[in-house]
């Protein structure tokens, strides 16, 4: 388990499209994500939320800052979850995922939570790892439903 992928907000970086495109140097995916985020393909770079090489939008994350300032690993350790930072999360699908994921991590523990997040985002047909939000498996081309 890579601790740099354990985003405090509950959005597990191991299934993030930006992280996966960067890790795999997948130029096609970088191009698609760049269009979606309004950045250049060269800006699709990330080694995880807790690394020194974070995606441009994640570099100023208030949730990450809050966790670090309060000496917490994440929102799963906070008694005031969900707080205004979660309520005001700018991406509705991301907010929905945070509200699902944080209680799961709190209940299951980090190691089990990571395993379940990775299993949640794999192709049901061929078991290829998927990124959060993928609509089609890159390996077998099956249509998939992910959050």
Write up what this structure looks like.
40% of the residues lie in helices and 0% in strands. It is mostly helical. Helix 5 crosses helix 6. It has one domain. The longest helix is centred in the C-terminal third of the chain and has 17 residues.
* Terminal-residue CA separation: 22 Å
Q: Class by helix and strand content?
A: mainly alpha
Number of helices: 6
Q: What's the alpha carbon Rg, rounded to whole Å?
A: 15 Å
- What is the strand tally? 0
Strand content: under 5%
Low-confidence stretches: none
Helix content: 40-55%
**Average pLDDT, to the nearest integer?**
92
Observed structural traits:
single chain, 147 residues, mainly alpha, 6 helices, 0% strand, globular
SSE diagram, text form:
Layout: H1 17-24, H2 27-37, H3 62-69, H4 84-87, H5 92-108, H6 110-120
Helix pairs in contact: 1-2, 5-6
């Amino acid at each position: 388990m890579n601790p740099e992928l354990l985003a405090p907000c509950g959005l597990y970086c191991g299934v993030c499209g930006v992280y996966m495109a960067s890790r795999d140097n997948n130029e096609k995916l970088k191009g698609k994500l760049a269009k979606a985020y309004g950045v250049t393909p060269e800006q699709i770079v990330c080694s995880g939320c807790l690394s020194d090489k974070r995606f441009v939008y994640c570099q100023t994350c208030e949730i990450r800052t809050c966790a670090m300032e309060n000496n917490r690993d994440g929102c799963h350790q906070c008694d005031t979850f969900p707080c205004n930072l979660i309520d005001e999360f700018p991406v509705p699908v991301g907010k929905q995922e945070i509200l699902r994921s944080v209680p799961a991590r709190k209940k299951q523990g980090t190691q089990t939570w990571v395993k379940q997040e990775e299993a949640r985002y794999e192709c049901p047909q061929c078991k290829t790892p998927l990124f959060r939000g993928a609509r089609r498996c890159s390996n077998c081309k099956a249509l998939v439903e992910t959050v």
